[in-house]
Specification:
Number of helices: 28
Strand content: 15-25%
Oligomer: single chain
Number of strands: 30
Strand order of the largest sheet: 7-6-15-17
């Protein structure tokens, strides 16, 4: 055994992630450890990776998703469960088309010039480039996806699922075509959903426009933030309960410039606090006006072209850009004496999430999916609503269940068409002869109604979220009855950000139940957003966006993963930055150095038993008890998706208990030899901790684990990789309250001496005398006096107790530790005169600061006028400085 160990390579002094990560990932891939195996005797654990848009490189949000999901997958895999983590990519209709069109614009081209087929060829080239890059980037992060099952929304299988769903819903009357008010993006040239509109507060104006009464007797004044839409006004509305305007209901006004006569109607939707209480009604260009228009059977007049220029209904303003027309209209109102006034006005303006263009509400002809009401248990929305209400699907954190249900209670039919070229084309053909529609699974050559060959396919594509909504079952082979679908569906967990709860999660629930009759997943875990160190949302305009691959190059994949999931809690935003990344890298280095110490001890030792001995020292029993409690807590936290807390437990045990105390105490035993070698316990705890940390830091733990097991006796049952070794579990048999209590006392004694040394400014290399009054614990302290001396740099140490009280010198530092006292004679340790002078000077300075603080907080004007947070901060400073002053006075009393 000893001779075999001498042949092993020594573990390097420094861990080099760049040298290790690529090699280790290849080892995992070659070993087939990521592949999901169907085992009918066991329930699988399944996560579907949210399909990444093929629009460029991964961002820090993708890295966090990958880190969270990989931790969950690796944990369940190590528990012996069949696991499937299915990766995929999304064709992202709007986003991808925008990116490719930008690239074309730089070349002086546009898609209309190229034609549909050439443009789609260009998009497919883009996807081929970035799709492969996204896979490589995920692998750099160390994700353990089953790459043999990787899917893409435009693959044959998912595409077949999309078409099947559309055809089935159409034939059931759940998909229809109709004109409704939609959000139109002039830049993207397509309708977008409410969820894809970013509302931004902007400083604008409120224009007060006069509309003359048709009978010539005066005018009514309306206020608007969009004067250009007056061209499409078909009524003026007032609130029926507004005393100011009751007399005008039923009258008519003439639309200036255009000359159209429009009625004044009464509607309770009118806000009496806005403007004059009379509002212009443009049903074709405003959500509220649209509903008013339907209630009062008003005409719908569209005044904008798809590029946001004024159309033929705009009279003299036809052809002008919407904002140029706005200025021209205001000038014309002013020229005619019909502009009453203009006021500054801050309001919310909708912008396209993809290109930041101001969107226009417009009535357009679109395809819609009828979802029904949440109150109808047989409707698409009703079944999805009930699945969460009944607890079939659990949302973590639970508070988002209410958010989900509120959205479902107010859900409207889903606009599923987009005026794009890239995506799943709508499988509807229109007949020029009989004007009927043909909808089928196969591309038709003739009209199914009249047999005419003069048919043309709808030019639009389906909303990207339509295909994404099928992801949990389309990736498993649905609509075919595949083995994967039968075993891996429903999924175990859907992990994603809370920002797409409606975009994606709700729609997957609706479509999963609609297509399969089963929920798509049992749990939904929603993580928060990543912010920078100051708490700001990351954005390119702020310049605080972080590239995860650059971070991996700088810190290593383990440090990046650990930083991204450190401190996170379900549904709450988290911060990351250089300090967090450096701390995570330091922790990886700490793990490496601890492991290197243990491995060197193994290499230098004679043969030892591989199992834990029966006869254990106090520190052995203590560290095994603390490990057991940590194991139990980590498993409990992971069950509750508290990954950040689970990491903290691992971190604190490894650094604060195993490294700082147990290893330091075993150094004495290793140095002196003896009957009780700490090596079996050192190895057991290290190996167990590596397995605990593996889901969070896969690369470094694999590298160390392989070095460790090479040094252990051969064991044919040992797994080939840490990732398929058992995750530690606890049955409580190692819990040892007595050992923990006794070790806590020794730790408190060492800590008290260290604190006193620090406060007394004792030189690092100098030992201090210590008197310990241990009471009934005197035998324990005497047994460990050598370790206490080494750890606290204290000598000589005199122990009293068991009825023998300890003397207290006149000038001494005393720390009371429950049942024990630690006494450090001060004389001879420090220059008492110099120390007294230093402390007294600090006291005087502190008293001056306190006097100013007390005066400020005693000033009524400051307390009443300053922001509450500032006042509270000053009060906290006052409490802190008062405590410091008391401490200084105590130290002055100690040294006399």
């Amino acid at each position: 055994m000893a001779q075999q160990r001498q042949k092993l390579n020594t573990i390097p002094k420094v861990y080099d992630p760049h040298q290790a990560e690529e090699r280790i990932y290849k080892f995992w891939m070659d070993g087939g450890f990521f592949r999901a195996i169907i085992d009918p005797s066991r329930e699988p654990f399944v996560i579907i990776l949210p399909p990444t848009n093929v629009t460029g490189d991964l961002h820090i949000g993708h890295a966090m998703v990958a880190s969270i999901e990989d931790a969950l997958i690796r944990w369940h895999r190590m528990r012996g469960e069949p696991t499937l983590w299915l990766p995929g990519k999304d064709h992202a209709s709007i986003a991808t088309q925008v990116m490719v069109e930008r690239e074309l614009a730089e070349e002086g081209l546009d898609r209309e010039q190229m034609g549909r087929e050439r443009f789609l060829e260009r998009v497919r080239d883009w996807v081929s480039l970035y799709g492969g890059r996204i896979t490589e980037q995920h692998q750099r992060l160390g994700v353990s996806c089953d790459w043999s099952r990787e899917r893409y929304t435009m693959d044959e299988g998912p595409s077949n699922a999309v078409r099947t769903t559309f055809v089935n819903l159409y034939k059931k009357g759940l998909i229809y075509r109709g004109e409704r008010l939609t959000n139109w993006c002039p830049r993207c040239g397509t309708v977008i959903s409410d969820l894809e509109v970013d509302h931004q507060e902007e400083q604008g104006s409120l224009w007060y426009l006069r509309y003359p009464y048709a009978d010539g007797d005066g005018y009514v004044t309306v206020a608007t933030t969009r004067p250009e839409t007056f061209l499409g006004d078909t009524a003026v509305a007032v609130n029926p309960n507004d005393e100011r305007t009751k007399g005008v209901i039923g009258k008519s006004v003439v639309l200036p410039i255009i000359g159209r006569r429009i009625p004044i109607v009464a509607d309770e939707a009118v806000d009496t606090e806005f403007g004059t209480g009379s509002v212009k009604v443009t049903p074709a260009h405003d959500p509220t006006d649209f509903e008013i228009g339907r209630r009062h059977n008003l005409e719908f007049v569209t005044v904008l072209n798809k590029d946001a220029t004024i159309n033929e209904n705009g009279g003299p303003f036809q052809g002008q850009d919407r904002f140029d027309a706005r200025q021209a209209i205001v000038e014309e109102f002013e020229r005619q004496g019909l502009l009453e006034k203009v006021e500054p006005h801050t309001h919310s303006v909708g912008h396209c999430q993809r290109c930041n263009t101001i969107i226009e509400p417009m009535v357009t002809l679109q395809w819609w999916m009828k979802v029904g009401s949440h109150e109808d248990s047989q409707s698409i929305a009703g079944r999805a609503y009930q699945a969460v209400v009944d607890g079939e699907i659990e949302i973590v954190p639970q508070r988002f269940s209410k958010v989900y249900m509120n959205w479902m209670e107010n859900i409207r039919d889903w606009c599923i068409s987009r005026q794009l070229w890239w995506g799943h084309r709508i499988p509807v053909w229109y007949c020029s002869a009989c004007h009927r529609e043909t909808v089928s699974m196969e591309d038709p050559t003739t009209c199914e109604a009249c047999g005419s060959g003069d048919i043309e396919q709808d030019p639009d594509v389906l909303d990207t979220w339509f295909s994404s909504a099928l992801w949990p079952h389309s990736t498993m082979g649905w609509p075919e009855d595949t083995e994967d679908l039968a075993y891996f569906y429903p999924n175990s967990v859907l992990e994603t950000g809370y920002d797409i709860l409606f975009f994606w999660v709700a729609r997957m629930i609706m479509m999963g139940l609609q297509n399969t009759g089963q929920i798509p997943f049992r749990k939904v875990y929603l993580h928060g957003m990543i912010r920078d160190e100051r708490g700001s949302k990351m954005s390119k305009t702020k310049g605080n966006v972080v590239n995860p691959l650059e971070l991996i190059d700088q810190y290593g994949a383990d440090a990046v993963r650990f930083a991204l999931t450190n401190g996170i809690t379900p549904g709450n935003d988290s911060r990351t930055g250089a300090r967090k990344l450096e701390a995570s890298r330091n922790f990886a280095n700490k793990l490496w150095n601890i492991s290197r110490y243990v491995l060197q001890a193994v290499d230098q030792a004679a043969d030892f038993g591989p199992s834990l001995p029966v006869d254990l020292s106090l520190e052995d029993r203590w560290v095994l008890s603390r490990l057991d409690r940590t194991v139990a807590k980590v498993n409990e936290l992971l069950e509750d998706f508290q990954l950040g807390e689970a990491q903290r437990e691992c971190h604190d045990f490894l650094w604060n208990e195993y490294a700082d105390w147990y290893i330091e105490m075993t150094k004495v035993r290793l140095r002196e030899g003896g009957r009780l070698s700490p090596l079996p316990v050192l190895i057991h705890v290290l190996e167990s901790t590596l397995r605990l940390l593996h889901p969070f830091m896969p690369f470094v733990t694999e590298e160390i684990w392989q070095s460790l097991v090479q040094r252990l006796p051969d064991d044919p049952s040992r797994p080939p990789s840490i990732m398929v070794s058992p995750f530690p579990i606890s049955d409580g048999s190692r819990h040892d309250g007595q050992a923990e209590e006794e070790m806590d006392l020794l730790i408190d004694i060492v800590t008290a001496i260290r604190n006193a040394r620090s406060e007394l400014k004792v030189e690092a290399g100098r030992k201090v005398e210590a008197i310990i009054d241990a009471g009934e614990r005197k035998p324990l302290v005497e047994t460990y006096i050598q370790q206490v001396s080494a750890l606290a740099k204290a000598h000589p140490i005199t122990v009293y107790g068991n009825g023998q009280p300890a003397p207290t010198p006149d000038r001494a530092r005393v720390a009371v530790l429950g049942s024990a006292r630690v006494i450090l004679p001060v004389a001879g340790v420090v220059d008492l005169g110099a120390e007294r002078q230093r402390i007294d000077a600090e006291r005087v300075e502190l008293e001056e600061v306190l006097q100013k603080l007390e005066a400020r907080l005693g000033n009524g004007d400051f307390v009443s006028k300053a922001p509450p947070a500032v006042v509270e901060k000053e009060r906290a400073r006052l409490s802190e400085y008062q405590a410091r002053l008391e401490k200084l006075k105590e130290r002055l009393a100690e040294i006399g």
